[in-house]
Amino acid sequence: MATRVRPSSKRCAVIGGSGFLGRHLVERLVDKGYSVAVFDIRQSYELPGVTFHQGDLCDKQALLTALKDVSLVFHCASPAPFSDDRALFQRVNVEGTRTVIQACQEAGVQKLVLTSSASVVFEGTDIKNGKEDLPYAKKPIDYYTETKIQQEKLVLEACSKEKGFFTVAIRPHGIFGPRDPQLVPILVDSARQGKMKFIIGDGSNLVDFTFVENVVHGHILAAEHLKPDSPLCGKAYHITNDEPIRFWDFMSQVLVGLGYDAPRYHLPYTLVYGIALLLWLLTVLLRPLVTIKPTFTPMRVALAGTYHYYSCARAKQDMGYKPLVSLQEAITRTVASYPHLRKGS
Ligand SMILES: NC(=O)C1=CN([C@@H]2O[C@H](COP(=O)(O)OP(=O)(O)OC[C@H]3O[C@@H](n4cnc5c(N)ncnc54)[C@H](OP(=O)(O)O)[C@@H]3O)[C@@H](O)[C@H]2O)C=CC1
Ligand SMILES: CC(C)=CCC[C@@H](C)[C@H]1CC[C@H]2C3=C(CC[C@]12C)[C@@]1(C)CCC(=O)C[C@@H]1CC3
């Protein structure tokens, strides 16, 4: 059943509100009548009903200014996953999140909704219909994911009825949609370089790609259902499109929609993974002399060649979640939003 939110609780903050997901979240919150304070290291737009606070989330004083009179905080800031900067991930995702929790508690914030990631349980091998009770990855696929695990643990452990501070973590997977700076641009860049001719493996591996508006819907539902004694307190929730799709069908639909050819030729998974591993070793050995950024990293090959889709049954049960936009509609809207990436443009 939908929960009515009292007007007094309609002031919130979005840490990372200038980013891809953050901005979609802010826009929806404003539509729903929230007044929003954005805290981000950069300001990328202006919007009525939104105040911007530019700063680093590791700076508690700067956070405290942004969190004044705020009862609900969404934390969706992170360095970009492919930046490969271990110290930066540790500083922002782990130490920074500790600071966010302290600042929330000092400012009297009641609810903290963290954007985690479904990848916190992924080790590079198949996950089919994974539930939230899967153990955290012992060998996470990269530093980014390693710090997302630590971040999620910190936020969920901070949930305290005694302190009146309630936390929940949303675990989306493969977010895509208009203005995404990663997925579609990387894909088109690879196609333009002639690298999208091959399918890694037999192409049957199912994966979740989740439309950004559905991810936003999951965050807002979580915030509105998070209260004392609700089952959400201190828990993690998968939010997906609930329509796993073959990884290579998704890639092909986006590519063909933008005027490029779909990948056609199959390469054995173990061969490509082996080559990616060798290339990675080479980049590590040559790092003192030269910086190489290969397209085929072991992590990307694993993401492209294995099953990784998750159940969102817990979110359906505890917060009435249901995707608002179907996968086909989402792909159509996403393709239409990138006219500048069409072939020949
Ligand atoms: N995109 C996806 O497919 C998935 C994303 N997620 C999670 O969702 C969240 C949002 O991701 P997405 O929107 O794609 O990422 P973006 O990079 O688009 O947004 C993150 C925002 O946080 C800002 N930021 C980074 N460091 C700091 C800092 N120290 N202080 C304040 N702000 C900072 C970024 O600024 P700048 O750009 O300058 O670094 C950016 O504006 C992240 O937590 C991510 O881990 C989880 C699963 C999948
Ligand atoms: C579901 C999920 C976690 C999606 C994340 C998206 C990215 C990991 C992908 C977006 C574009 C993809 C891509 C490749 C790997 C995975 C992505 C980076 C390749 C590098 C795989 C090997 C190729 O043939 C080229 C691909 C380019 C696009």
UniProtKB/TrEMBL annotation:
Q: Does the keyword Nuclease apply?
A: no
Indicate the segments forming the 3-beta hydroxysteroid dehydrogenase/isomerase domain, all copies: 13-267
Pathway in which this enzyme or protein is active: Steroid biosynthesis; zymosterol biosynthesis; zymosterol from lanosterol: step 4/6
**Primary localisation category:** endoplasmic reticulum
Mention any one GO cellular component term assigned to this protein in its UniProt record. Answer: endoplasmic reticulum membrane
E.C. designation(s): 1.1.1.170
Tell me which domain of life the UniProt entry assigns to the organism this sequence originates from.
Answer: Eukaryota
Keyword Transferase in annotation: no
Which top EC class is named for this enzyme in its record? Answer: oxidoreductase
Where is it localised?
Endoplasmic reticulum membrane; Lipid droplet
Topology versus the membrane, per the UniProt entry? Answer: Single-pass membrane protein
Query: What is a biological process (GO) this protein takes part in?
Result: cholesterol biosynthetic process
List keywords of the entry alphabetically.
Answer: Acetylation, Cholesterol biosynthesis, Cholesterol metabolism, Endoplasmic reticulum, Lipid biosynthesis, Lipid droplet, Lipid metabolism, Membrane, NAD, Oxidoreductase, Steroid biosynthesis, Steroid metabolism, Sterol biosynthesis, Sterol metabolism, Transmembrane, Transmembrane helix
Tell me which InterPro entries the record gives. 3Beta_OHSteriod_DH/Estase (IPR002225), Lipid_A_modif_metabolic_enz (IPR050177), NAD(P)-bd_dom_sf (IPR036291)
Check the record and name the Pfam families matching this protein: 3Beta_HSD (PF01073)
Record's catalysed reaction(s)? 4alpha-carboxy-4beta-methyl-5alpha-cholest-8-en-3beta-ol + NADP(+) = 4alpha-methyl-5alpha-cholest-8-en-3-one + CO2 + NADPH; 4alpha-carboxy-5alpha-cholest-8-ene-3beta-ol + NADP(+) = 5alpha-cholest-8-en-3-one + CO2 + NADPH; a 3beta-hydroxysteroid-4alpha-carboxylate + NAD(+) = a 3-oxosteroid + CO2 + NADH; 4beta-methylzymosterol-4alpha-carboxylate + NADP(+) = 3-dehydro-4-methylzymosterol + CO2 + NADPH
**Similarity-based family:** Belongs to the 3-beta-HSD family.
Description of how the protein assembles with itself and partners: Homodimer.
What is this protein called in UniProt? Sterol-4-alpha-carboxylate 3-dehydrogenase, decarboxylating
Protein species of origin = Pygocentrus nattereri
